[in-house]
Amino acid sequence: MTNQRSIKESHPPGDFAIWIIIYVELLTFALLFAGYAFSRRTDVTLFNASQLVLDQTSGFINTLILITSSYFVVKAVQSVKNMTQKSTKSANESASKWIFLAMLMGFSFLVTKLFEFSHIFGLGITLSTNTFFMFYLLLTMFHFMHVILGLIILGNIYQRTKHAGYTPDDHSGIETGASYWHLVDLLWIVLFPLIYIIR
Amino acid sequence: MQHKLEITWFTLVLLTIFAFLLGYLKYTNTAFVALLLLSTFIKGQIVIDYFMGLKEVSLRYRLIPAIWLLTVLSLIATAYYLPL
After folding, report:
1. Which domain holds residue A167?
2. For the segment B24-34, what is each residue's pLDDT rounded down to a tens digit?
């Protein structure tokens, strides 16, 4: 979250290249979300029955986890953006703490998801079981990979904050990584009600 | 405003609890699905505006994900509400 300003920035936070990637990801997931929603119309009974196998609580917990991790990432960005030349070290330390917490949340998401996948695969469910599970596995595994990539990016940011690598003039990197992490959150915010709740 | 970020996070948590309760209590008839999609739009827009920080940048950059969100949720609503 940025500070109150009267004049708007001309470009979004971070490196513009990440925004190209974000737009492509949004488009890809939009096709998958629409594909799921319209495929459901072809066999509502099958989709509703298959959905009962999913653990809504796990999806709920993972939503809270991602929202909270995004909050931690914003706190880290704020620490770095509000730094002065004198507070560079302490600001990086503070950002480091927030990024670590965000990563912890990210790993918790992966663990919760792995338990869910383990339950699903334990039931003998695969991509070819039916259309619902094809979309469920495709969407959630694709998103799972995005979380892993997001964690790798956060890991790099964490390393840099540990070496006080961000300065008042150079903090684009943390904003770039943060933007990607928020994308992961945004995608899950749509995925959760679509796959787990709507019936 | 002090604690603006915390209020934002708390709003997201409340809307998530609302969505979960709709599913948990099996309140997923047509009216509640509309509410659920509306709450999802609000959540997504909060992330776009305050977490991604796009509220403070040129409108065109804010509009791209906002239009994406609106389009996706409209498609989901269309698929749900169109008669079979």
Report:
1. 46-197
2. 988 878 889 99
Beta-bridge mates of residue A167 = A170
In chain A, the number of structural domains is: 1
ipTM of the complex: 0.95
Q: Does A169 touch chain B (CB under 8 A)?
A: no
When CB atoms are compared, the residue of B13, B48, B79 closest to A41 is: B79
Tell me the CATH number at A53. Answer: 1.20.120.80
Tell me the β-bridge partners of A9: B57
Q: How far apart are alpha carbons B70 and A195 in whole angstroms?
A: 18
For chain A, the C-alpha Rg in angstroms (whole number) is 19
Which residues of A fall within a CB distance of 8 Å from B20?
56-57, 60, 63, 197
pLDDT digits (tens, 9 = 90+) for A104-128: 999 999 999 999 999 999 999 999 9
Query: Residue A39 domain-assigned?
Result: no
Angle, CA B45 vertex, CA B40 and CA B51 arms, to 5°: 115
Residue A51 maps to a domain? yes
pTM of the model: 0.94
Amino acid symbol at A149: L
